[in-house]
Amino acid sequence: MGGKTLTRADLAEAVVRNVGLPRNESQELVELVLSEISNCLADGEPVKLSSFGSFGIRQKGERVGRNPKTGEEVPITPRRVLIFRPSNIMKDRINGGQKGRRRAAE
């Protein structure tokens, strides 16, 4: 998996190449899309991107954790966490189109 990390600049460059928008407009478009996704999630709204997946927020309750160095119990406060569920199309694409195959652990 030693590939390069995809950045905002890479996304903007892909828009320039594939859509033909000027570079500054492509950067603005990428920022607008990411901002809209972030704002919706911050407001607790789920975000579904067809053929890609869905993002959502899950509420995690308070629980007791443990400091790995000392073994001391530490309370972990309730919080909201971001979750992502890939679509079946994305799962198939990642797995090279191997439809219907499951890992032995499942």
From TrEMBL:
Keyword S-adenosyl-L-methionine recorded: no
Keyword vocabulary terms for this entry: DNA recombination, DNA-binding, Transcription, Transcription regulation, Translation regulation
Transcription is among the record's keywords: yes
Membrane-spanning parts: none
Family per similarity comment: Belongs to the bacterial histone-like protein family.
Any single GO CC term annotated in Swiss-Prot or TrEMBL for this entry: cytosol
InterPro entries for the chain: Hist_DNA-bd (IPR000119), Histone-like_DNA-bd_CS (IPR020816), IHF-like_DNA-bd_dom_sf (IPR010992), IHF_alpha (IPR005684)
Function as written in the Swiss-Prot or TrEMBL entry: This protein is one of the two subunits of integration host factor, a specific DNA-binding protein that functions in genetic recombination as well as in transcriptional and translational control.
GO biological process: DNA recombination; positive regulation of metabolic process; regulation of DNA-templated transcription; regulation of translation
Protein's name in the database: Integration host factor subunit alpha
GO MF assignments: DNA binding; structural constituent of chromatin
Gene3D superfamilies attached to this UniProt entry: IHF-like DNA-binding proteins
Species: Candidatus Filomicrobium marinum
Organism placement in taxonomy: Bacteria, Pseudomonadati, Pseudomonadota, Alphaproteobacteria, Hyphomicrobiales
CDD domains xref list: IHF_A
Summary of subunit composition and partner proteins: Heterodimer of an alpha and a beta chain.
Gene name of the encoded protein: ihfA
